[in-house]
Amino acid sequence: MKKLILSAAVIVAAFSASAQNRIGLQAGGAFSTYNVEAPGFEEKSDSKFGFTVGAVADIDFGNSVSFRPELNFIQKGGELKTTFGNTKSQTETTLSYIQFSPNFVYNFKAGTGKLFIGVGPELALGIGGKNESENVTTVGSTVITTNNNSDVRFDGKKNAPGNDLHLKRIDLGANAIVGYTLANGAFVSAGYTAGIKNISPEDNSSWKNSGFNVKVGFLFGGTKAKK
After folding, report:
1. Mapping DSSP to helix (H, G, I), strand (E, B) and coil, where does residue 124 land?
2. CA-to-CA distance for 217 and 32, rounded, in angstroms?
3. Which of 3, 68, 110, 224 is the most buried (most CB within 10 A)?
4. Whole-angstrom Cα distance, residue 198 to residue 215?
5. C-alpha closest to that of 33 among 65, 81, 67, 69
6. How many CB atoms lie within 10 A of CB 30?
7. Between 15 and 187, whose confidence is greater?
C-alpha cells in the first residue's frame, strides 16, 4: 500500500509538470473525532486538534472542472470521556496517517481568483499513534489518580495482549472540500471527511474516524485564475 500511494504521488507530479498545470504545498489544522462501538458500549469522542501538511496539484480538465489530488500527513483521533462505576477515565488518542485524497472540483470565477468545491474518496495509511489516559477513582473520601500511556499499532491483531490499541492499517473515507484560490496561486481550503470503513479488528466492534480540516497553501506554475 505504501508503494501504491508513492506511485500515485509520482504520477500526479509527472502529469502536473507535463500538462503545465499547478502543483503546490499546504499545511493546516485538523479537528478529528471517532465513533467507537462494542457490545453494550457506544460513544463518540470529543474533537481533538492535530496537524496536517502535504502536497496538492490542480490539473485542469476544462469546462471549469479540475482534478485536485492531495497527499498529506495528518493527525487524527479524539478525546473520549467515560465513567465505569466509581472510575472516570479520559483518554486522548492520536493517530498518524499518510492520506491520499483524489478530489474532483468545480471552479467558479470570483473576483480576481476562483472559488472551488469538490468531492472525492480518501485513502489513508496508518503509520503510528499514542494513547494517553487518566483514570480517577473515588473510594469514599479517597481519590486515586492513575495515568496509562500506550502505543497505537496498525497491525490489525485481534485480542492482542497488553495495553496497546490495535487497529487496521488502511482507512477509507468520503471527502468534501471548499476553498478559494487567488490569482497568484495562494489558497485557503476547508474539508470534511466521513469515515466509511471500520478499522477495528475485533469482532462485533467498530471504530470509524471523521474530521474537519482547514489548510492554507500555494500553487506554483500559473498566475491566472481559471474561468
Report:
1. strand
2. 21
3. 68
4. 26
5. 81
6. 24
7. 187
Q: Please report, for the chain, the start and end positions of each structural domain, with discontinuous segments joined by +.
A: 2-15+27-77+95-127+166-220
| DSSP character string of 143-158 | EEEEEEEEEEE-S--S
**Share above pLDDT 90 across residues of the chain, in percent, rounded to a whole number:** 69
β-bridge partners, 16: none
- Name residue, grid cell 487524527: 76
What's the CATH number for 2-15+27-77+95-127+166-220? 2.40.160
Nearest Cα neighbor of 170 from 201, 199, 149, 143 is 199
Mind listing the pLDDT tens digit for each residue in 43-52? 999 999 999 9
The CA-atom distances, in angstroms, between 210 and each of 90, 107, 118, 198 are 20, 26, 17, 11
Q: In whole angstroms, what is the distance from residue 45 CA to residue 38 CA?
A: 14
Q: What are the φ/ψ torsions at residue 223 (nearest 5 degrees)?
A: -120, 0
> How far apart, in whole angstroms, are the C-alpha atoms of residue 166 and residue 197?
15
Which cell is 225 given? 485564475
**What's the pTM value of the predicted model, to 2 decimals?**
0.85
Q: How far is CA 129 from the centre of its chain?
A: 13
User: What backbone torsions phi and psi does residue 180 show, to the nearest 5 degrees?
Assistant: -140, 130
Q: What are the backbone dihedrals phi and psi of residue 2, each rounded to the nearest 5 degrees, phi first?
A: -60, -40
With DSSP H G I counted as helix, E B as strand and the rest as coil, what are the percentages for the chain, rounded to 5?
A: 5, 70, 20
Kindly give the pairing relationship between strand 170-181 and strand 113-139.
antiparallel
